[in-house]
Amino acid sequence: MSAYPVHFSADYQEKRNRLTVFFRLILAIPLIVVLMVYGILAEIAIVIAWFAIVFTARYPAGLFEFVAGFTRALTRITGYAALMADDYPPFWGEPDDAYPVRLNFDGPLPEYSRVKTFFRLILAIPLLIIRYAFGIVLEIVAIGAWFVILFTGKLPRGLFDALAYSNSYIARADSYVFLLTESYPSLDEKDAVEQADGSLSAPGSTATLAAPVQEPLREPTDGGGAAAD
């Protein structure tokens, strides 16, 4: 499991429902509407948390859980809209380990840096530029995946990995901007996508397959005939 305090995990599903994929953006409209309202409340919570940390060096637990819930919902809904999963996601941000796209947090730190929090938006400028780029990548790959699924009924693993990696970075970047972590997210694959078994998946990752074990050839018998298997 990654040492990064924000944990993104996703389950690969090859076979897809062409019908729900075709109408995916329409199906996502109710989720987006709820997410907009959720986002307004989360913005208020983040501003309050900013003041709380600057003055007390603490992130109130209730505010942390609320903002974490919004970030989790944003990540799941983004994953659904971008075709990472066919299952309809929950509207709100409660943890759901059964959903194919998951985002979990280590929890609030015992103490936060007032300086890092005060200058968070300035510190986040390079991060936001990279996040914007990943957003474009996510959209392009999702469009490609849409066409592939409609024609084949399947999502290739390579496209899924690209979607998961992009969504993972966006989620970790949002967590930093939302004050949920003080750790600057890296582009390293080991921080990208955590599978249920703790392994990682990201573009460029390869799986090592064990070669089949073969029986050693037996020497011919003294009579000159080959030994039978």
Describe the protein in words.
The protein is 51% helix and 4% strand. It is elongated and about 55 Å long. It has a two-stranded antiparallel sheet with strand order 1-2. The protein is mainly alpha-helical and 229 residues long. The chain has one domain. It has eight helices and two strands, in the order βααααβαααα.
List keywords for this structure.
mainly alpha, 2 strands, 229 residues, single chain, disordered C terminus
Major sheet characteristics:
2 strands, antiparallel
Shape: elongated
What share of residues is helical? 40-55%
The averaged pLDDT comes out at: 85
Structure summary, number of beta strands: 2
Radius of gyration: 23 Å
Percentage of residues in strands: under 5%
H-E string = EHHHHEHHHH
Low-confidence stretches: 196-229
Given the structure, what is the number of helices?
8
- Protein structure class: mainly alpha
End-to-end separation in angstroms reads 45 Å
Strand order of the largest sheet: 1-2
The tally of domains stands at 1
